[in-house]
Amino acid sequence: AVLLEGLQLDNLAAVEMLRANFEVSCGRCGARDTVTIASSAVASGSGSSSSHQAAATGQCQRCAAAWSIVMRPHFVHATSNSLCVIKPEGCCPVDLLPSLLGGQCGECNAVMSLRDVQVGLPFSRNCSSCHKEISIYMAAVSFVPKGPPRSAAASRRGVARPGAAAARRPRGKASGGGAAELRPGQPLPALGTCKHYRHSYRWLRFPCCGMRFPCDLCHEDAVSDGHPARWAQRMVCGFCSSEQPLALGCRVCGHQLAGSSANPSGRSTRFWEGGTGCRDPRRLDKKDPHKWRGRNKTISAKQSRVGPKPWSGKGGAAGGGGSGSA
Ligand SMILES: [Zn+2]
Ligand SMILES: [Zn+2]
Ligand SMILES: [Zn+2]
Ligand SMILES: [Zn+2]
Ligand SMILES: [Zn+2]
């Protein structure tokens, strides 16, 4: 079941999913993809009960594994936050993306469409018939599994690499979603870190496309149309997967998730990082090439003419040679 957490309906009697966009991860390779499922109620309105269902099939863009999702929409109203039941095969739903909902005005019962409703962003419009303002807000979405989890491939992959090391090691954007469903209370893949920010333990929800990424660079890598990222206002904690307003710490589990926005890695870096990190050569890490830049402006060609000095082992190291030969 797909539950809407922190749901607020204003002047809306009922809401129903008409065209859903889900983010899924491939059950075999973990690649992320987006799925659109259009309910048959798009044409018929919300008069009938929720007996209709809709389905979508496709295949993974990376490993070509086939998947399918069957969706059965529910009526969402003040006392029920269950949006729909979905049955995924060969994939795992990980997020609800901006979708088309149908809403019924609480004042005049007119039914109208609510376009691009997204998690974490208030939506409002005026009723098409009585012109009263209606609005909907959902703070988070959660996927509550039914039956045994179908993530054999993903868990096998997790066992191959021991838990702590796998969590600490940043993985690529696509393989980062390799772990199965995201569940509240469970940590995100790689604790929400990415290859760009290894000490930022969260995902951000970008309002431009409604999708979650560890950082704006991951967003840049992943979006197909190349739209620029808008500043995120919501985040998902890397330790407990709870979605909440952007902050430096998680208000659910209390973990510190990031440093200040000027220093998102949350530590005093010892690397150059394109000029935004450490700029003091004495404090730079010895593996950073900037530490040695400009130290030895004149590089002797003698070594290439006569070979390495016999007492220096295997030829002077690029950095150490300067002081050692005095
Ligand atoms: Zn795949
Ligand atoms: Zn109305
Ligand atoms: Zn975006
Ligand atoms: Zn990143
Ligand atoms: Zn947390």
Automatic annotation (TrEMBL):
Pfam family membership, one: zf-CHY
Biased composition (Basic and acidic residues): 279-288
Biased composition (Low complexity): 149-167
Keywords annotated in UniProt: Metal-binding, Zinc, Zinc-finger
The UniProt record lists the keyword Zinc: yes
Disordered, as annotated region: 149-184, 261-326
Molecular-function annotations in GO: zinc ion binding
Biased composition (Gly residues): 313-326
UniProt cross-references to SUPFAM superfamilies, sorted A to Z: CHY zinc finger-like
Positions of the CHY-type domain: 187-255
Protein name listed in UniProt: CHY-type domain-containing protein
Species: Volvox africanus
